[in-house]
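note to self: dont lose this again. the chain is below, predicted strucutre after it. 297 aa total, dont forget to put it in the shared folder this time
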Amino acid sequence: MRLQTLRMLLCIHACGSLRAASEQLHISQPALTLAIQQLEGELGCQLLVRTKRGVSLTTFGQALLPRASRIVTEAERAKEEMAQMRGDRIGQVRLASSPAIALSVLPYALRPFMAENPDVRVHCLEGTYPAIGPALRDGSLDFALTPLRDEDLSPEWHAEPLYQSEVAIIARKQHPLARATHLEDLQAARWAYATGTRGPGAVVDEAFRQAGLEPPQPVIIFESLLALPDLVAHSDLLATVPRRLIGRGAAWDTLCVVPVTQALPTLNLTVLRRASQALTPAANELLGWIRQTAKGE
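---
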């Protein structure tokens, strides 16, 4: 099983057609077809099927895809690691970050890292666990900076605490419940969550349960924490946000923190990665700057 052929399979899946993949890979379509046929012969199964729109993966191809992705990613990571161990500051670091960390810790950690590693490319995407779980599992990400609940810990993950973050309930200033002081008053309100019910955007559920109340049912899942304040400012929705995001953006001129007296849960911000995956020297160096910056949080 050749590494280059696995790269071809991944490219075909991403492009959706042999023609587009051959153009992107700069090889002829017959050569690409032959390589895939040889892989199919080696595995004893058909990986691709032609459709009216191009090609798609068979059941066998779908099963092979995540393994192929992990093999290719690990091979590229190994090459980068050897180069970095030789003293070459090249390669890339791939991470995911929650919006709160991306706006606070990350910029101050990236500044010295990028100054010392100008040829290392950093690819950072916005996301939190569990949404970024698949990308961590298949090796697409080196690590993630994300809130993590204790019940989500498992042997497959290595979770390193960074700091704890407080959350607040927000509403527009003219909202009928803007001055509510008890969660009971907010139970029947219309809520917007920044994540699904297992994610950090639904952390208020824990507060309701601790108060002996049934958690509210969100009327909208709005998976953009940075845009969530604007949504709340122009509606009768309530939402929770990390306190460190309060005041960032024009929407806060019309928003307020709902002064509930019950304690709200805190978010445990962690560095999350696969327990079986070693970080490259570059990823370790960036993580060192992140740790140092987070100490002041």
